[in-house]
């Protein structure tokens, strides 16, 4: 198994960075084109909007590492070991986010012009569950007008079928005797 090139089923929150050894026109042609992205990555891309192709020169002042931190939610400490290498890249890069593959397990076999630079996980805030204040869970479930939800009984069903039967009987009686 090649590290970083195997995408497990239902992967979430991972960004893969690839450098592209291609000219501007070739890189631009990849944008949003599932067939070309599939050829470049060697695997089916279900949702091309989760693949971003950009010129590193467009990130001047921010740099690729800054873009990954600010734009993709990757913790700066996660990027720290690769910061110099990421910011030294030139030309075009391709950022491939987990949802691009639609939750399917995928083995990437990138074309020769596509080189994996790194795999980074997005920072997720810690989930904390706190007890609700004492009186906040008490209240009225009634909607506007002070009426609560209808009771869960079968009475409504019987009324509907009874009314339908009455209408059908009246229509039948009129058809047979009312002419």
Helix-strand blueprint:
Blueprint: E1 6-7, E2 14-20, H1 24-30, H2 34-41, E3 51-55, H3 63-72, H4 76-79, H5 83-88, E4 92-97, E5 106-107, E6 114-121, H6 155-177
Antiparallel strand pairs: 1-5, 2-4, 2-6, 3-4
Q: How does this model look, in words?
A:
With 179 residues, the chain is α+β, with helices and mostly antiparallel strands. It has a domain at 6-121. 32% of the residues lie in helices and 17% in strands. It contains 6 helices and 6 strands, in the order ββααβαααβββα. Strands 3-4-2-6 form a 4-stranded antiparallel sheet, covered by helices on one side. The protein has a two-stranded antiparallel sheet with strand order 1-5. The radius of gyration is 30 Å and the shape is elongated.
Strand content: 15-25%
The largest sheet, given as strand count, sense and whether it forms a barrel, is:
4 strands, antiparallel
Radius of gyration: 30 Å
How far the N terminus sits from the C terminus, by CA atoms, comes to 83 Å
Order of helices and strands: EEHHEHHHEEEH
Number of DSSP E strands: 6
Number of H- or I-type helical stretches: 6
Unreliable runs = none
The rough form would be described as elongated
Mean of residue pLDDT? 86
Q: Strand pairing plus helix content: what structural class?
A: alpha+beta
| Helix share bin | 25-40%
| Spatial strand order of the main sheet | 3-4-2-6
Keywords: Membrane, Transmembrane, Transmembrane helix
Transmembrane segments: 158-177
């Amino acid at each position: 198994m090649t590290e970083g090139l195997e995408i497990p089923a239902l992967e979430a929150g991972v960004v893969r960075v690839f450098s592209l050894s291609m000219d501007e026109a070739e890189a631009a042609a990849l944008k949003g084109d599932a067939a070309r992205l599939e050829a470049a990555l060697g695997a089916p891309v279900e949702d091309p909007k989760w693949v971003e192709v950009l010129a590193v020169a467009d990130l001047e002042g921010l740099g690729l590492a800054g873009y990954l931190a600010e734009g993709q939610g990757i913790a700066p400490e996660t990027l720290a070991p690769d910061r110099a290498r990421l910011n030294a890249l030139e030309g075009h890069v391709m950022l491939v986010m987990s949802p691009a593959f639609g939750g399917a397990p995928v083995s990437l076999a990138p074309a020769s012009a596509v080189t994996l630079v790194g795999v980074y996980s997005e920072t997720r805030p810690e989930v904390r569950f706190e007890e609700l204040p004492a009186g906040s869970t008490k209240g009225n479930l009634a909607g506007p007008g002070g009426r609560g939800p209808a009771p869960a009984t079968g009475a409504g069903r019987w009324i509907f079928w009874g009314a339908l039967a009455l209408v059908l009987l009246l229509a039948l009686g009129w058809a047979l005797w009312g002419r």
